[in-house]
Design brief:
It is a single chain. The chain has about 550 residues and is α+β, with helices and mostly antiparallel strands. It has 23 helices and 13 strands. The chain has helices at about 1-25, 40-45, 50-60, 75, 90-100, 100-110, 120-130, 145-150, 185-190, 195-200, 225-230, 230-235, 250-265, 280-295, 320-340, 350-360, 370-375, 415-430, 435-445, 450-460, 475-485, 500-515, 520-535; strands spanning about 85-90, 110-115, 140, 155, 160-165, 170, 210-220, 270-275, 360-370, 385-390, 405-410, 465, 470. Strands 1, 2, 3, 4, 7, 8, 9, 10 and 11 form a 9-stranded mixed β-sheet that branches. Strands 5-6 form a two-stranded antiparallel sheet. Strands 12-13 form a two-stranded antiparallel ribbon. Helix 7 packs parallel to helix 8 and helix 14 (about 280-295) crosses helix 15 (about 320-340). Residues about 1-30 have low confidence and may be disordered.
Length: about 550
């Protein structure tokens, strides 16, 4: 309880001080831009979803060339010789950061001791450190649902350090807090969705961290086989197998038809489709995707805020017979689609699913875009250069629903303020334009800075660095489409009981897929146990 009380006291102090400081900090762009009409902007960026933002990313912000002003160098180097301890998931962006830590040392004089771990092991280490008050880590990876929903109260709000409207330090008269790199409005600096979905939980006024990475799902498919069997598919189904554009017109029923066809006729792969169906988080993401595609609101919870989450999410699926029927139909479809998948996919994690495509076990995936670089690496993949990428299809509800793991990076609030400042400097660097750019070029992991997207766009998304390293960015084009055109189809279940929620849903979905429970029995058990978990009476709707 000591941590919680100190956190509340800190928050009260923060809001009092910040209201005074907000009035003193004036917003200023780094430089002026010529005003262009909408027509001129559209002509400059014909394939960009938000031409005005792309104009800023392209012409206003320094991006990969950013450097601190001479007068700011002492702020970055005030803790030279000391060490920052970071706990993060072993995602491609984090692996990229690990390989450029010398840049942080050159900027700050500090060393970094970074712990890279799988999400479940990482979660336990972070929770133990925060709840015990041990202070072993300055900085935590904050994947919002599995970690942030239960750890955010132990993190220092980023808007304790900076005015998020301007990027300017809230300690302008002290030599120890630099501005957010580029000195820009944070909503402009980061790509769509990452600010509110990835950096806020429960409250619109508190930033639990800075946007860091985003694992977004989309569709992978063997375009060579789609072309080879196109005529046969037309004969069978009366529609083309070859996918035009990013497949925006396709439905889940179309992908099901493709799966049936591949299992019937295509001999180059063992099975048609692969999903990341491992318990509990992975399979739950698939379930949530289909819920929304079938038109279920807010992942089935009556009162869940689709952006911020809710401490009390309300009743689960028993408040409406209509919502219940949609959810049941989506789970029935999931079972039908699973029957066309590789049977081992019920236990596949992200790595196993990506490897299944690379080794020609399957021809199609619903998977994180971060695995595209592996698929396109001829030293790791048998199908490099033969895979296409499409947006997630619609269901009967009309939504291009897709799964997202938007993760901030956060500062430990249980440590002294001096130590928090050391952690904050790492947060500023690792979410800044230079580190995000270099990490992307090292491992092609998902960046969150708009300037990185713009840099890749101008080079055709896939390009080679000066030293001959290939940078695989084609999946960013798909992700940009989804996160801008279909932003309302993105919902994250941020609730305090998230771990138990995963246990209840994950176990039931797995049993439904392998036939140990009927879809209705599985769904009814989820409804019963989740409503009891959240203190609501249970009444299964009649349909």
């Amino acid at each position: 309880m000591k941590v919680r009380k100190s956190y509340l006291l800190m928050m009260a102090t923060f809001f009092t001080a910040s209201m005074i400081l907000f009035s003193l900090v004036a917003y200023a762009e780094p430089q002026a831009l010529p005003e262009l009409s909408e027509e001129e902007l559209a002509a400059l960026y014909p394939d960009a979803p938000y031409p005005k933002l792309h104009y800023k990313w392209d012409k206003l912000y320094q991006g990969e060339t950013w450097k601190p002003k001479p007068e700011d160098v002492p702020k970055w180097q005030q803790f030279a010789g000391e060490t920052v301890y970071v706990a993060t998931e072993n995602t491609p962006p984090s692996l990229g950061m690990y390989n450029i830590l010398d840049d942080f040392t050159k900027l700050t004089g500090m060393k970094v001791d970074i712990t890279l771990d799988l999400i479940d092991e990482l979660k336990e280490k972070i929770f133990l450190d925060l709840r015990s008050g041990a202070g072993g880590y300055h900085v935590n990876y904050g994947q919002t649902a599995p970690i942030g929903t239960q750890a955010a109260e132990f993190w220092s709000p980023i808007n304790m350090f900076a005015d998020m409207r301007t990027g300017k330090s809230l300690f302008p008269d002290l030599p120890d807090i630099p501005d957010i790199p580029e000195g820009t409005t944070v909503y402009d600096a980061f790509t769509a969705g990452n600010v509110d979905y990835g950096a806020k939980i429960y409250s619109p006024d508190i930033w639990i961290g800075m946007p860091y990475d985003t694992a977004m799902y989309h569709m992978f498919y063997r375009k060579d086989l789609f072309e080879k069997y196109n005529d046969k598919f037309i004969q069978e189904y009366g529609k083309p197998l070859v996918i035009e554009g990013m497949g925006e017109y396709l439905t889940w029923d179309d992908w099901y038809d493709m799966s049936v066809f591949f299992n019937k006729y295509v001999t180059e792969v063992d099975y048609a489709m692969g999903f990341v169906n491992a318990q509990n988080w992975a399979i739950n993401l698939n379930f949530q995707t289909l819920l929304r595609a079938w038109g279920v609101k807010n992942n089935g919870f009556e009162k869940l805020d689709p952006v911020l989450g809710s401490r009390d999410p309300g009743r689960f699926l028993d408040y409406s017979a209509v919502e219940y029927k949609k959810a049941l139909d989506s789970l029935i479809f999931f079972k039908k689609l699973y029957d066309e998948m590789h049977p081992d996919s019920v236990v596949w994690g992200w790595d196993e699913t990506g490897n299944a495509l690379c080794t020609e076990k399957v021809a199609m995936l619903y998977q994180c875009g971060e695995y595209v670089p592996i698929v396109e690496d001829p030293t790791k993949s048998m199908v490099a250069g033969r895979v296409g990428y499409a947006v997630v299809p619609t269901g009967p509800g009309g939504a291009h629903a897709y799964a997202v793991g938007a993760a901030p990076i956060a500062v430990n609030a249980t440590i002294p303020l001096k130590e928090q400042k050391k952690g904050y400097l790492y947060v500023l660097w690792t979410t800044g334009p230079v580190a995000q750019h270099k990490s992307f070029e090292q491992f092609s992991g998902t960046p969150v800075r708009g300037t990185v997207y713009e840099y890749a766009r101008k080079r055709g998304w896939d390009y080679y660095t000066e030293d001959g390293q290939r940078v695989v960015g084609i999946y960013l084009k798909v992700q940009e489409k989804q996160s801008t055109a279909y932003v309302d189809d993105w919902v994250v279940t941020k609730i305090p009981t998230f771990t138990k929620y995963l246990e209840i849903t994950g176990g039931n979905i797995s049993k439904a897929l392998v036939g140990r429970l009927t879809p209705k029995a599985a769904l009814d058990d989820m409804i019963t146990r989740l409503n009891r978990l959240h203190g609501y009476p249970v009444e299964i709707p009649k349909i």
